[in-house]
Amino acid sequence: MNDTSFIGLVQNAALLLAVAFIFDVVASRWHTGQSPFRQALVGLALGAIGITVMLTPWTFGSGIVFDTRSVLIGISGLFFGLVSTAIAMVMTVAFRFYQGGTGVWTGIAVILTSGAIGIAWRYFRRRSQTEISWRELYLFGIVIHLSMLGLMLTLPWETALRVLSSIALPVILIYPLGTAMLGVLMVNRLRRERAEEVLKVRERSYRSLAENLPGIVYRVHIHEKGNMHFLNNMLLPLTGYNEKELTKGEVCSIDPLIVAEDRDRVISEVKAAIKDNRSFDIEYRITHKDETPRFLIERGRPIFDNDVLHCIDGIIQDVTPRRLAEEALRESELKYRTLVEGTNNFVFMVDRKGLFTYVNPNFEIATGYSLSDLKGHPFTIVVAPDERETTIDRFKKGVRGAPSLPYETELLGKEGNRVAVEFLASNLCDSRGNVTGRFGVGRDITKRKEMEALLKDSEKRYRELSIIDDLTQLYNSRYFYDQLKKELGRVNRYEEHYLTLLLLDLDDFKQFNDAYGHVEGDQVLSRLGQVVKRCLRQTDSAYRYGGEEFTILLPMTTSKDAAITAERIRTEFKKENFPLAPGEDVHVTVSIGLAQYKPQEDMKAFVHRADQLMYQAKKNGKDRVCSEYISS
């Protein structure tokens, strides 16, 4: 590698550090706690930096360029996390693909490998990024760029050898050092930001403590006849009076503002504290300058010097808002409790771990568990076993912020009873918006589910009535064609599938009707339906095709096997006895045409072929089975 190439790599690394420094100055908070939107913006910024770096490469040859994108992408994965790095990787991969050339896929592999190493390093190390040492950063750079050099072997072999012989040494010397330097910048940024945050918190605390203490800070000097010195500016806001207005002679005190009913108690408590050399804590009322009552809490302690009372130090706080809020809270809690405990709905609350913290009386009645039984136990104790996995998954998604939608489940009572319910649950959050648990309101939908079941049964029954012949209790011809289409589609899809069709027709049925009447004829049709059902498998299906004609579909059955079934139906039906008159037994026979489906055969042609075979059975003497292979 010549001096110009070496200087080019050094300049490229320097440009990366300069760009990183500019980003460090301009960027605001970018640490891992940011929102996905900010992570995306950071990713776009990193991608732009990567493209800038790639615009000033050192060109080894046609389509083979080197720059410090591996440093940037690796550091991005280590410090910025998955989302930002993934966006930067997509942008730089797209730009490298746009640049093209012999080394395009090697360059893309370098980007993806560098980012993957950075992300993995970030997520597999347990300590904070602020604790990363320059040694670890240097080792991190070595790992990335050894991988980068290894990827050079994806180039044509001769090119790979020339590239490695030229760049291996400078890359190992310069790039890990650049990685460590950029990483140190990031670590320093993190440490500086953390120190600034701590400093800001402390500054706010001290400022708040010094300037905005929530009350009157005072000192009573005993040698000044109990004169009260105020150490902050809270006297006027709390009482409406200034020091001059509360001074009589040489003594300033708020004692005159204390309502008469409380004054003696306050004086007595202070004297007892002085006697026992202990602190005191007194709540009392004063009359504000605007003539409204105020509730105050005074906390103080006598200070002794050589067993002689020197002074009393204390703070007086206005607790009027708290007292009013407590009263309002008691009223609100009463309303809430009345509403929750009086409702017919189920109400429950669980903590973030899914442990019960509250259930209302209706929930107790429905499950048989009391609040004391459930408190501290997981909510799954009252969920039906087959619903638990789904309910746990829904709970976890809800805690993570998934939208609250109504859902149905089943509660499992203490005695094993089940209650169908519909719940709507939402998150409980603290003042900072952190999820602390879940709150749910539900209702008993057992009756509704029963009605839905009845409706489904009714629909099923209606559907059955629409496809079943009432006389024979076999399927009707419309359903026959629906099922035939499905079976033909299955046979045409799978070569190993067979389908055979039987077409049955009662022999001399018209003469039977003429001789004995249609009522007796209906009995024959009904009896044939019963015989057919007895002779079929569960996978077979029979249909009243029309009048005295019947069809039977035999899936996965060859004509040879179907002939056995057809013969069984013929002989069994022939045994049926119809006693139509005293001493006269009548037997009815059936002729059967049998056809096996030929692949890709037209449906109508298939049915017609079976029909013609049935007529052939009639011509051959009736009461027989006829197919293209047999005739009996």
Number of DSSP strands?
A: 22
Give the distance, in angstroms, between the N- and C-terminal Cα atoms. Answer: 96 Å
Query: Percentage of helical residues?
Result: 40-55%
Main pleated sheet: 6 strands, mixed
Low-confidence stretches are 26-32
Here the CATH topology of the largest domain equals Arp2/3 complex 21 kDa subunit ARPC3
Rg value? 46 Å
| Spatial order of the strands forming the largest sheet | 15-17-18-16-21-22
Report strand %.
15-25%
Average predicted confidence as pLDDT: 84
The top-level CATH class of the largest domain is Mainly Alpha
Given the C-alpha coordinates, what overall shape results?
A: flat
- CATH-derived architecture of the largest domain: Orthogonal Bundle
Count of separate DSSP helical elements? 18
Number of domains: 4
Specify the structural class.
Answer: alpha+beta
Tell me about this structure.
It is built from 18 helices and 22 strands. It is an alpha+beta fold and 632 residues long. It has four domains: 3-196, Arp2/3 complex 21 kDa subunit ARPC3, CATH 1.10.1760; 216-323, PAS domain (Beta-Lactamase, 2-Layer Sandwich), CATH 3.30.450.20; 343-449, PAS domain (Beta-Lactamase), CATH 3.30.450; 470-627, 2-Layer Sandwich (Alpha-Beta Plaits). It is flat and about 140 Å long. The N and C termini lie far apart (96 Å). Residues 26-32 have low confidence and may be disordered.
Topology diagram in text:
Blueprint: H1 3-26, H2 36-54, E1 58-61, E2 64-66, H3 69-99, H4 104-124, H5 134-151, H6 157-211, E3 216-221, E4 227-230, H7 235-239, E5 247-248, E6 251-252, H8 260-276, E7 280-287, E8 293-305, E9 308-318, H9 320-342, E10 346-351, E11 356-359, H10 361-367, H11 371-374, H12 385-399, E12 407-412, E13 418-429, E14 435-444, H13 446-467, E15 475-476, H14 477-493, E16 499-506, H15 509-516, H16 518-535, E17 541-546, E18 549-555, H17 559-575, E19 578-581, E20 584-586, E21 590-596, H18 603-619, E22 625-627
Parallel strand pairs: 15-17, 21-22
Antiparallel strand pairs: 1-2, 3-4, 3-9, 5-6, 7-8, 8-9, 10-11, 10-14, 12-13, 13-14, 16-18, 16-21, 17-18, 19-20
